[in-house]
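Write out the 3D structure for:
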Amino acid sequence: MLATEVDRGSVEKMVRSFYEMLIKDDLVGPFFIKALGDDLKNDKWYEHFHTLDKFWLMMMTGEKGYMGDPFLPHVFIGKLTEETFERWLELFNKHVHEHFIPEIADKFYRKSEILAKQFMENLEIGEEFEDED
């Protein structure tokens, strides 16, 4: 059954199941495994999940609790590409639509698209940053 509201429980369920699926992806998974390991029950993942829970609750409901800069950890994650971001967005879009009613899933996806665009600009990824020969 699709979640009809965004609350701590629905966000936690979505975040955990998303990353459980994501680390199995050949393109995106290795970045997260390198940074956090392949055991989703380890301390690094535990901390990451709680950070993401607070982040998405803030983004979707305005609930206070997230403190930090979502961009900074991505600076050190490895050589991210436009293809990496596109794949993450594709998987995220599919996943949120498997967990939430369309109206909510679309809102999650719109916010993730904005974030991905900001991250790519900050990391200077994309056609506008490619060297011209």
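The chain is about 65% helix and 0% strand.
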